[in-house]
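This section describes the prediction task in plain terms. A model, or a person checking by hand, is given the sequence of a single protein chain and must write out its three-dimensional structure as a string of tokens. No templates, partner chains or ligands are provided. The sample shown here is typical of the held-out split.
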Amino acid sequence: MIIDPKESSFQENHKIMIGSILPRPIALVSTISAKGKNNLAPFSYFNGVCSNPPSIMFAPSRRGYDGQTKDTLNNIKETKEFVINIVSEDFAKQMVLCSTDYDPNVDEFSISELTPIKSVKIKSSLVKEAKISFECELQKIIPVGNSGPGGGFVVIGTIILFHIDDELYNDGYINIEKLNPIGRLAGNNYTRVQDSFEIKRKIKPD
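The expected answer:
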């Protein structure tokens, strides 16, 4: 089957993309507004960019029903900072509660009963329940696509501090079993990282 995205709605294209790009890591992004209001929201268009300096990206879309930007992006534009919290299965349900489009004055920490704790270098809060969090400074925001529903942005941040649970970290490596991260699938579905296999690769040819 061949599908021309120009002949489909953005909703149809979205379904194909989230059903094909699998599994997607989840960033639970905590921000704070210029007025000091906490915000917490999950994003699965998320990944690393480079390691020198350590940089990450996530892509908040415009709201599907009116094309407006989301609170997370608005806060980052104001404060130039954010925290990426890696989602483990043990607080997956609380994470999902943060995905609802609440009023900007609503604190998703309170709604989800996740625990905010003070960051070291920035004002945005860490999620206590997260075993790994990154304090980030904004590097750049790149508008992508249309300026209405279905459009979005790429937010690139520089990691200025890693927070890693001591039991996860040994000799420079993360214990994935103890981290127990989850991935986003399509619809209301998620996946666990419970099975893996190894394929050795060569950095350079012989």
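For orientation: The chain has one domain: 7-188.
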